[in-house]
Write a structure and sequence with these properties.
Elements: H1 2-34, H2 41-62, H3 64-69, H4 71-91, E1 101-104, E2 107-113, E3 116-122, E4 125-128, H5 130-164
Antiparallel strand pairs: 1-4, 2-3
């Protein structure tokens, strides 16, 4: 029972971290498709793996009873996703050293709501490159999911071992004979 609760918790974390990854990488796939260009491998590999992993996580979460009955198979598929996510993160590895933000000491600010606005000088200026930040976040979520899928694979092995320890009790019936025949 405890392993099942932990399994559900980690599956929910996987789903929660896979959905933003899907959205961010789908944005890039859509941008490249709009430009009629091929999506680069470093985006496409992690996108495809995260789509498949999200579907797998949702299906195994909702079908927990059958997941428990075939724990070894589900554990093996989770380990396959660990390997596939490692491949996706490896393809996206060059974004790890990128600097996605720019922070300077002199800058200005402006805030506009409808027709009313405020502007002025600020001692600080902060800007972020959206594409770089989204790729870096996808990279980080990919690493998190590698860890999460490894944990659920281990939990499934524990659930399988626990199921093997079940004791089968055989009921015996004693037949009574009647003398009235």
């Amino acid at each position: 029972m405890v392993a099942g609760v932990f399994f559900s918790f980690w599956r929910l974390l996987q789903i929660i971290t896979l959905i933003p990854t899907l959205g961010m990488l789908a944005y890039f796939v859509d941008q490249f498709q709009d430009q009629n260009r091929l999506t680069p491998d470093y985006i496409l590999v992690l996108f495809i793996v995260s789509v498949l992993a999200a579907v797998w996580a949702i299906v195994t979460l909702f079908r927990r009873k059958s997941t428990r009955e075939s724990a070894i198979f589900v554990s093996f598929i989770d380990l396959c996703f660990v390997g596939a996510l490692i491949a996706g993160v490896y393809e996206l590895r060059n974004i790890a050293n990128a600097d996605c933000t720019n922070f300077s000491a002199n800058g200005s600010f402006s805030v506009t709501i409808n027709n009313n606005g405020i502007s002025g000088n600020s001692p600080f200026h902060f800007s972020t490159d959206k594409n770089c930040a989204m790729l870096k976040a996808s990279f980080a979520f990919g690493i998190m999911n590698i860890i999460f899928f490894f944990i659920t694979s281990f939990l499934l092995l524990f659930m399988h071992r626990k199921r093997d320890r079940e004791v089968v009790v055989k009921e015996t019936y004693r037949r009574r004979s009647h003398d009235s025949r």
